[in-house]
Amino acid sequence: MSLLKYSIIILGVFIQSKVFAQSEEEPQNEIFTAKNVVYAEFAGNSGGYALNYGRTLYQKDRLKLQVSAGFSMLYRKGSERIFNQYWVPVIPLELSAFIGRFDHHLELGAGFFALRNRTYSFDETFPNNVREQIHWDQNILARLGYRYQKPEGGFFFRISYTPTVAFSNSDAAENQVSFVPFGMGVSLGLSF
Questions:
Q1: pTM
Q2: Which end of the chain is flanked by fewer CB atoms within 10 Å, N or C?
Q3: What average pLDDT does the chain have?
């Protein structure tokens, strides 16, 4: 009986020392020294593609918070008789929280992007009977996905589900608010 007690005590001390040793080593491995990331995103928080810069502002244990901003130009096809093709500037912004150990993380976030758009309508009081209205459309999206990023820097990758709520500021829009439930985004880049 006493042999069993001693074995349990020794096993308990051994397990306790291993648990404390791991908890002391983990925070050093969890610290992101590479707090910056430059990446290209396809779909997701840009509606097409964007070049982005992100910065980790806060980290504690397994939680990291990052903000990012980007820029893109989207091509819009023209109509032969009404207007020519044109490029639309897009400005994506995002706040993300990613949780995980070492290189692999669950990412949750909220993003916003605005795009300068145009609509054309028939109006007899304008030259050529075409009235051009320039407006800014806004989109709010959520992000749920996987993020691969090493704490010390290097290759960065993420893939996400990104449902979007779009707000149109055009007078001619049939729906001022619309919901796009099936959005996806893929990002590739470098952290440093």
A1: 0.75
A2: N
A3: 83
